[in-house]
Structures are given as structure tokens and as C-alpha cells.
Amino acid sequence: MFRFRKEAILAAKIPLSRVHQSQVIDRRILEVVKSGNYILGPESKAFEKELAAYFGVKHVVLSSSWTAAVHLLHIAQGIKPGDEILVPSLTAFPSIEPMIHCGAKPVFCDIDDTYTIDPEDARKRITKRTVGILPVHLYGRPANLDAFMKLAKEHNLWIIEDCAQSHGAKWKGKRAGSYTEHAAFSFYPSKNLTVYGDGGAIATQDDEIARKVTMLRNHGRKDKYLHEKVGFNLRFNEIQAAVGREQLKVLDDLNAGRRRAADGYRRELAGVKNLVLPPDDKDGQTESVYHMFVIRLKDNDTREGLGKALKEQGIETGVHYPVPNHQQPAITELYGQLPSLPRTEDYTQRILSLPMFPSITDEEVKTVANAINAYLK
Ligand SMILES: Cc1ncc(COP(=O)(O)O)c(C=O)c1O
To answer: What is the pTM for the complete model shown?
Structure first.
């Protein structure tokens, strides 16, 4: 009997991520359903205001995803064919889609050992056509914003912080997304702040950009029957805004849960040979929110073997990302073979994302760490 129970516990699945749910959110969803008001109503307006206050920015404009929000932002910025934008190759593919749809060219940069865009590598790639930089706060850790603000000032470039994975993270005490003129957030289900579906937003300090994005997301409307520009239907809906408002109230607690789990992994995996833990916040500049906890193994075979061994024990892992964007077929088809990015190409062969979500228990963290220890021994 005892053996059976023990096996049952071991077989329990530990997912890569798990969405925070609550009865309060259930009630709020029903409330909005009954209100009969479903698109860009009072919930969306309040969510925008509350997000702006939380992130410490002047405006937040909601849209149907990060990708949609940034597409609107690039149009509002006047991005045009021939423009070049510096971006890390190691990021989610959507980071570069809006700029390509506007005719601009992503100029892929290597990363440093924090997995975020390397400022020195980015500097080398600046040309007369460079108009902006899109640093990605990957895995919940802010990129080196001081270095990028210096670069932007020297070369008259704009910055958009990709905050899809970094809601609530801080750089030198200020929230990621509030340091530079523009930022964009995703509320996709696995993100630190979700709306139970797709959703996104831009954050900006610029009144005119906020006005244009607000107008473009809703068919270019100036008024109900007056269209200033040909726009889009990339609006936000009320049920998701209500969910987001409740998630925002507990975001700091949820992030604290992620940090607790990260501390647990660090404790349990300290000193394991041939394993590199994620960068910590001991530099005193960053406060990470651990969207993911990514370890680095000796080589690709070890990564693949460990992933398989964990899967057999019901532990889900991921690779973010196995194919760097400068080597994606969609990109080489457009631009041909691009220059090699040595660190990006090396790390993408060896990284593994471990289960990471606010409600992961100390016991679950131990189970994952023990399985890793046993495999690498
Ligand atoms: C770093 C990064 N940028 C952009 C996106 C795109 O977000 P969305 O799915 O909301 O368009 C994601 C989500 O996968 C992401 O992780």
C-alpha cells in the first residue's frame, strides 16, 4: 500500500508553468458577463490606469497581444522600410515580427552571460540606418538599461523595452518598462501577469504615441463614425481586463513565489558539476522576477538526455529557445545566411528551462533538483 502511494506521488506531474486562479477572479468574470459590456469599457480603462500606476509610466494602452501592441507602436513611431533595429537573436520570434511587417530590418545581436543583449556587441552593429534598440528582459531579468540608454543617447536612437517576460522586475529600483520612452507587455497565459488568454499593452511616456496607438487599435477612430486613419481591430476585452486587474493586485506576491522557488533551486543545485545556474541579483542593479529558471548544461547531449529523464519522472521542461532567430527559416529566407553569433549559438544548444510558477512547492522544487542531481552524478 505504502509503495503504491509513493509511486503515485512520484508520478505526479510538475508542469513547466501553472496559471494563478482564484474564486475572486471567477466571480469577477461572471460579473462582467452579466454587465453586458464586453469591449474597451470601464474595466479596460481601469486596467490601463492601474497598470500605468504600477509600472510608473504616463500611459498604458491595451491591445490584443504584445505583437499587436508593438505593431501599432511601430506604425505610430513611423518605422519605415530600410530602418534597422538592434535586437537580441535569443528571444521569442514575435519580438521581431512587427518591425519586419513595417519593412524594417532586425539587426541581430549576441547576448552576454546574463542571456540579455550584449551592449558592446550591439554598439558594433550600429549603422546610419539604425533607428532603435529593442532590449528584451529575457527570463524576467532586466537587460543592461544604463548601457542602452547611453548608446541611444549617443546615436539618437529610441528604445522599446520588451517586457513580455518581466512584469514587476526592477532595474536600479525602478520597474522594467519605466526606464525608457516605450515598453511592451504580454499577458499570454504563462506570463507573470496574465489575463486568461492573449493580451498585451504598450507603456509610453509620450502623449502623442499613446493617442495614435489608442486610435489605431480601434479602426483609426477619432470618434464613433469618424476615422482619422485606416486602422485595425486590435482591441481589448472587458472580461480579460477584469481578470488582469485581479492578477495585478497579487502580482508582487506571485513574483515573490517565483523568487522563493529560484532560491530553492539555487540551494538544492549549488555546487552541481557541469551545471550553470541563472545569473542572480547580487550586482545590486537588477531585481529579477524569474519568468523562467534556466540552467545551462555541459553540451547538447546532456541537455537532451536530462530533459528526457525528467520527462519520464513527470517533470516538464522547456527550451527557450532552441533555434536562435537569426537562424530561423523565415529569416534566412528573407535575408540569407546571417553572421554567426557565437554565444547565442552555443547557449541555445545547452539551456534548459525548469518548472517555474508562483505556487510551486518547496517539495516540488526538491523533487526536480534531486532528479537533476541523480542524472548528472
Ligand atoms: C520576449 C517576448 N516577446 C514577445 C512575445 C509576444 O507576446 P504575445 O504572444 O503577447 O504577442 C513573447 C511571448 O511569447 C515573449 O516572450
So the answer is: 0.95
